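pasting for ref
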Amino acid sequence: MLNELNREAAAKRGAPGSDIISAALANNRLGVSSVVFFGVAGAAPLTVIIGAITTVYAVVGNTALPLVYIVVAGILSIFTVGFVAMSRHIVNSGAFYSYISHGLGRELGVAAAFVALPAYAMMQIGLFGLFGVVAAGILGSLGLNVPWVACALFAWAIIAVLGMLWVDLSGKVLGVLLIAEIAVVLVYDLVMVANPRDGAVSVAMLNPAQLLTPEVVAMMVLAIGGFTGFEATVVLSEEAKDPKRTISRATHLAVLLAGLMCAVSAWAMSVGAGPGRIVADAQREQTNLVFSLVSPHVPDIMITIGYLLFMTSIFAALLAFHAAVSRYQFALGRERMLPSRWGYTHPRTGAPVVGSITQSVLSLIAILAYWFTHADPLVQLFGYLTVVGGLGVLILMWGTSAAVIAFFVQHPRLENVWRGRVTPVIAFFLLSIILFATVVGLGDVLGLAEDSIFNWAFAAGYAVLAVLGAGWAAIVRYTKPDVYAVIGRGVERRTLFEFPEPPRPHSHSMAFQDHYSTTSSGRESR
């Protein structure tokens, strides 16, 4: 009886279009700093500085990279204005999936979910390859011959455990790692600027005229991958303290911090190597470029710490992406677009249990498959999967910018013109250019032959997944209209608690109760 009353009361409390669910993520756990740690850790600034910046210098051969990072950070900041404006009105761990559902319709929302799941999963799985290679290299320098797969599996085990525990614990782990990471980046930057190759600090690479060179678009395509992960802040919205303010501040800070670190470090590297030598040095030293520039000027212990933090930077990104993909699965399970078991959380930690386990199992299978087939963990596991996963995230950002426009056209009074109209339109235009350039140049980024089927297969694969998602939503619309109605609508903090039935009264009490009910009804009828 009380169960039925409780369900009816909960149904009355729920506004039209909102969910009533049987489990929820642990709320009120994360402050601004913790959410920033997740966002910046996903972008993995030290990994980008040591790996991506050197690669762009070496491959593209243009010294405009510091400016390119500033421009990309500006574009993403413009995108973030409308993105976080929408986050103030929609609190949902489904993030892109939920926003596109509200702005462009439920079918396109599910299409976005079908793109998001493999994109984030590939981003995380690919990073295991890089972690394994870097960790094996560090151990090799100490005289320990350990295969990359053993190092990857060690990281996998820790991530699998942390993914099942309290989200604020993961936030604290990321905080410690990220603060140490930022500290060593600042020290390295200061050392390189204080010791310029040409004897004087040059700002020639900051000349805006360099942005007019034809290589800039290719550099932007590569640079934007270094920011992938900042949007994970919104995935944590249901677990944040005061999400309408926390997520907005954290997302802006994550973009600005990642962009500033990458731009300053790219400039410092060009100063340390010399503007005329940076490309040749990058091609020769590759990922050792930063260490080769600072090693003559710092104690050996600082180089060792740098290598260790390079490894922990990758680990932090692994943890951040694991949190993101498991919460996407939770959001879909809660709304029964995945089996309902994915919508349950751990009763003590509030972690999305099934989503976390699923991602851990997929990661384990991928790591072992690459190991058994003797595939190159750096190129074929890390390189291919993270680039293709980054393409998926870029597609989601592009779709979300369109959804923000549509949402605020439908609800013009929720935000001012700048946040609700102007910045989303600018972001959509700029992201359209970058997405087009990325799809066209994906084969070059991956180093594929011109006639390789994979030049277009990955983009086509995402298109197929999106069509399948939209088709599945259309089927659900007619077969399960109650499920269709709540697609992307989230929880809005309402949870249904089942109360136990009270014990049945003694038989004498039942008899008295029946007699009293009969007598009372007889009196009423009279």
